[in-house]
């Protein structure tokens, strides 16, 4: 039996309320202690991981596998015909990116959160009479992405920072997380532009500081456009390629021109 989206979200509704931003004891939920480089959401490590030589030994079908698994963002067409949905999605994504930066989460966490949100909104269309719905979905998607990628994750109440319009109880967010997981059929590791960036960087043999600085610039470029729905029509492989070319042009404008000539 198909779920009635109105009924589902009515059950999740939580009234707006005031809350304090001061950190409390137990501010973070430990997910994994060993090897953690986060302390209260701030990346304290200034060192760059070293890529091992065996990391560069990829199977010949690695790229074919990524290409076969990447998917078009089907929400794009809906956004073109529904201005309210496009606005709600943009607002939700921009809020997630602010929280992602607030806690110094990785770029992959942000990309995964947006991916989850887009796939969820495709199944549960935005309802303009329930403006709280998109924010609740955004909180749940960001929380799930952080649990997938980060070693330390804020408590659900503490995740609601950066001018959050509504504040939801943890149990409400947890119910939404279950709804998101079931809607996405627990497929939480999709192919993203970062999948291709990592692959290409390894194939080019970029190591140490050079590799990580290049990828960091690519990360920043992707994050800067991820809220713009105009880029949703491109496959992850196309976004990754365009991002890398843009970064190369910024670092050495004449490099690509010389290669073409």
Short description:
The chain is mostly helical and 261 residues long.
Account of the 3D structure:
With 261 residues, the chain is mainly alpha-helical. It folds into 2 domains: 5-49 and 75-183, Cyclin-like (Cyclin A, domain 1), CATH 1.10.472; 193-260, no CATH class. The protein has 11 helices and 4 strands; from the N terminus they run H-E-E-E-H-H-H-H-H-E-H-H-H-H-H. The protein has helices at residues 5-12, 62-69, 75-81, 83-102, 107-123, 132-149, 170-183, 193-203, 208-225, 236-251, 253-260, and strands at residues 28-30, 38-39, 42-43, 152-154. The strands form 2 sheets. It has a two-stranded antiparallel ribbon with strand order 1-4. A hairpin with a 2-residue loop joins strand 2 (38-39) and strand 3 (42-43). The longest helix is centred in the middle third of the chain and has 20 residues, at 83-102. It is globular. Residues 5-58 have low confidence and may be disordered.
């Amino acid at each position: 039996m198909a779920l009635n989206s109105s009924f589902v979200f009515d059950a999740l509704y939580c009234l707006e309320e005031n809350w304090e931003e001061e950190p409390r004891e137990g501010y973070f939920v430990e997910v994994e202690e060993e090897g953690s480089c986060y302390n209260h959401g701030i990346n304290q490590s200034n060192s760059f991981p070293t890529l091992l030589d065996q990391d560069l030994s990829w199977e010949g079908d690695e790229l074919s596998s990524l290409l076969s698994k990447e998917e078009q963002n089907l929400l794009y067409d809906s956004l073109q015909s529904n201005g309210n949905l496009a606005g709600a999605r943009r607002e939700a994504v921009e809020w997630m990116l602010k929280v992602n930066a607030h806690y110094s989460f990785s770029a992959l966490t942000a990309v995964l959160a947006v991916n989850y949100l887009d796939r969820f909104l495709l199944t549960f269309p935005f309802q303009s009479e329930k403006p709280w719905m998109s924010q609740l979905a955004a909180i749940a998607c960001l929380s799930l992405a952080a649990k997938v990628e980060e070693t330390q994750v804020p408590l659900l109440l503490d995740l609601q920072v950066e001018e959050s319009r509504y504040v939801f109880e943890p149990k409400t967010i947890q119910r939404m997380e279950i709804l998101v997981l079931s809607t996405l059929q627990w497929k939480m590791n999709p192919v993203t532009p970062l999948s291709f960036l990592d692959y290409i960087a390894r194939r080019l043999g970029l190591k140490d500081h050079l590799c990580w600085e290049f990828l960091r610039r690519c990360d920043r470029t992707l994050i800067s456009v991820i809220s713009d729905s105009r880029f949703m029509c491109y496959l992850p492989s196309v976004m990754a390629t365009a991002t890398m070319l843009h970064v190369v042009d910024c670092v050495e404008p004449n490099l690509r021109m010389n290669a073409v000539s």
